[in-house]
Amino acid sequence: MSTDKPKHVVEEIVGKIKEEWGEYTGNEALRVEGEAELEQAKEDLKRDEE
Fold it and tell me: Who's near 15: CB < 8 A, 6+ residues apart?
């Protein structure tokens, strides 16, 4: 088990917040950035669990 799990969980939360805030404010760039960060964090978590 990796010690980076808390870091990846925080990155996932931040990505989701950016995605939602970008959608709420109509800021497409922020929404896309948040979506990318969320997906990367999910991949990192999955990789750490292996």
Answer: 34, 35, 36, 37, 38, 39, 40, 41
What is the value of pTM for the model shown?
A: 0.83
Q: Report in angstroms the alpha-carbon separations of 2 from 7, 24, 28, 37, 49.
A: 10, 34, 33, 19, 7
25, 35, 45, 48 from 18: Cα distances, Å: 10, 8, 19, 23
List, for residues 1-48, the tens digit of each pLDDT value: 557 888 889 999 999 999 999 999 999 999 999 999 999 999 998 888
